[in-house]
Amino acid sequence: MSEKISADRALTIALSIIQPAMDLLRTNFGKNLKISYKSRIDPVTNIDIQSSSLIIKYLKRYTPEIPVLCEETKDKVDYSDIYWVLDPLDGTVNYLHGVPIFSISLALLKKSEVLVGVVADPMRNEVFYTCRGDKSYLNGKTISVNRISRMERALVVTGFPYRLEKSFFSVMKNFSRVVRQVQGIRRLGSAALDLCYVAGGRFAAFWEEGLNLWDVAAGSLIVENAGGKLSTYHRKNGNYLFEKNILASNGVIHRKILALLKSEN
């Protein structure tokens, strides 16, 4: 760990900062929003920006020497050093439509290794968190992946990329292959929560492509420390943090799901 900050101290800071941001999202949920679009169907609201500004303000106060990579600011960071990774509102489409499924994701990385991960669900008042080498927790209680081994008993979750037109047929074929093998598939709309629900045993697996580092950094470590398994599915030995596709599972059914996703399209 960098001498700039210890993992325990970083986690304490992250957990304290996440609370006012949760209050902000709860308070403004269901109210009139100012909305703009980054692409045809990829929105950003004034609350995304306010949440980002609030969290970054506190990060700069407590860790002024550590840069912040954020979805809404996209400031450059040195990937060879230590840096925060923030998604101030993961699930913006849900948020603007009044669907109460969204989250805040905050992680601390050194190079390509996640050291601390925190994911908060403001509407359920659930905070998932962990440090590298520790267990994963939900509101102070240890969590772990489930041990479901039969595909027909597995409830899994997925998502679709905003630029679906570029990979429509492969995404739909993967969905079709998996849905015929499992008990059911859900689509929540927040990748960070999807990962945490795998970590907590609610889902047996999650896969999605078109994701960015801020979508998966915190949640991936929470899955790992809860006993789960992670990989890419487009390329063998790829880095799921940076290659925009991820498969997270309870470990037991990982190979079975992976085989379906890696099939020829």
Which terms would index this structure?
D-Maltodextrin-Binding Protein, domain 2; 5-stranded mixed β-sheet; alpha+beta; single chain; 7-stranded mixed β-sheet; 265 residues; Fructose-1,6-Bisphosphatase, Chain A, domain 1; globular
What does this structure look like?
- The protein has 265 residues and is an alpha+beta fold.
- It folds into two domains: 7-143, 2-Layer Sandwich (Fructose-1,6-Bisphosphatase, Chain A, domain 1); 151-261, D-Maltodextrin-Binding Protein, domain 2 (3-Layer(aba) Sandwich).
- The protein has helices at 7-28, 46-62, 92-96, 168-179, 191-199, 213-225, 254-261, and strands spanning 35-37, 43-45, 68-70, 82-90, 103-110, 113-121, 126-131, 136-138, 141-143, 155-158, 184-186, 205-209, 229-231, 245-249.
- The strands form three sheets. A seven-stranded mixed β-sheet has the order 3-4-5-6-7-8-9, with helices on both faces.
- A hairpin with a 2-residue loop joins strand 8 (136-138) and strand 9 (141-143).
- Helix 1 (7-28) runs antiparallel to helix 2.
Average residue pLDDT: 93
Largest sheet: 7 strands, mixed
Separate helix tally? 7
- Tell me the number of structural domains: 2
Distance between the termini: 42 Å
CATH architectural name of the largest domain:
2-Layer Sandwich
Which range does the strand content fall in? 25-35%
Output the CATH topology of the largest domain. Fructose-1,6-Bisphosphatase, Chain A, domain 1
**Care to count the β-strands?**
14
| Class derived from helix and strand content | alpha+beta
Order of helices and strands: HEEHEEHEEEEEEHEHEHEEH
Radius of gyration from the alpha-carbon trace, in angstroms:
17 Å
Low-confidence stretches: none
Assigned CATH superfamily of the largest domain:
Fructose-1,6-Bisphosphatase, subunit A, domain 1
Largest sheet strand order: 3-4-5-6-7-8-9
Shape: globular
Tell me the name of the CATH class of the largest domain.
Alpha Beta
The helix fraction, in percent, is: 25-40%
